[in-house]
Write a structure and sequence with these properties.
heterodimer; A: mainly beta; 6-stranded mixed β-sheet; 5-stranded antiparallel β-sheet; 0% helix; globular; B: mainly beta; 4-stranded antiparallel β-sheet
Chain lengths: 113, 117
């Protein structure tokens, strides 16, 4: 029940295209769903996050779509750029003190120029 | 805001020696620190959770005597890899949760690449 499944494992997109990464979770107690971006040799950085009371959140070129009934959420990167090439992790959390993040397996995104 | 400074970024040590990694929250009080280990092309694996002033809680399979965690203040946590061996070579990342911190979520350090030779 603590797992978060992420797909695809790797993704290659042309510059200007749309990158889509999907995640599914089991634990209905999760109530906060962040996405992290990680460049090689660096720690993850929070990219965007959503709570289950909304179905979509957009910040610039990044959009999270959330389907509570299906227990799925996805990250869409519009107008993908070579600088977006990184590993993306979805995660889930129950917002109680000391709660731990449950990470997806990660998606290595490559945006070709 | 919400910056976590992790040092060193890279360290090479000889087998049998100990290595200390520091993680500092620069602009907030880190009530909880998390230490992760990450292998190449894999996700983050939680090693332990520490609350300021308390003993760390280790995940199953993590040797507490090998990976010593100290969280003596609200701005500093350390991970000491004792008697390091080549199999301890990995990327170690800390993460802090505390107040004030916006947006809610964990702030990660920049990671430490440990190579044991």
């Amino acid at each position: 029940q603590q797992q978060v499944k992420q797909s695809p494992q790797s993704l290659i997109v042309q510059k200007g295209g749309i990158s889509i990464i999907n995640c599914a979770y089991e634990n209905t107690a999760f109530d906060y769903f962040p996405w992290y971006q990680q460049f090689p040799g660096k720690g993850p950085a929070l990219l965007i996050a959503i709570r289950p009371d909304v179905s979509e959140k957009k910040e610039g070129r990044f959009t999270i779509s959330f389907n509570k009934s299906a227990k799925q959420f996805s990250l869409h990167i519009m107008d993908s750029q070579p600088g977006d090439s990184a590993t993306y992790f979805c995660a889930a959390l129950k917002e109680t003190s000391g709660s731990r993040l449950t990470f997806g397996e990660g998606t290595q995104l490559t945006v070709n120029p | 805001g919400a910056v976590v400074s992790q040092h060193p970024s890279r360290v090479i040590c000889k087998s049998g020696t100990s290595v200390k990694i520091e993680c500092r929250s620069l602009d907030f009080q880190a009530t909880t620190m998390f230490w992760y280990r990450q292998f190449p092309k894999q996700s983050l694996m939680l090693m332990a959770t520490s609350n300021e002033g308390s003993k760390a809680t280790y995940e199953q399979g993590v040797e507490k005597d090998k990976f010593l965690i100290n969280h003596a203040s609200l701005t500093l946590s350390t991970l000491t890899v004792t008697s390091a061996h080549p199999e301890d070579s990995s990327f170690y990342i800390c993460s802090a949760m505390g107040t004030p911190q916006r947006p809610y979520g964990y702030t990660f350090g920049s990671g430490t690449r440990l190579t044991v030779v």
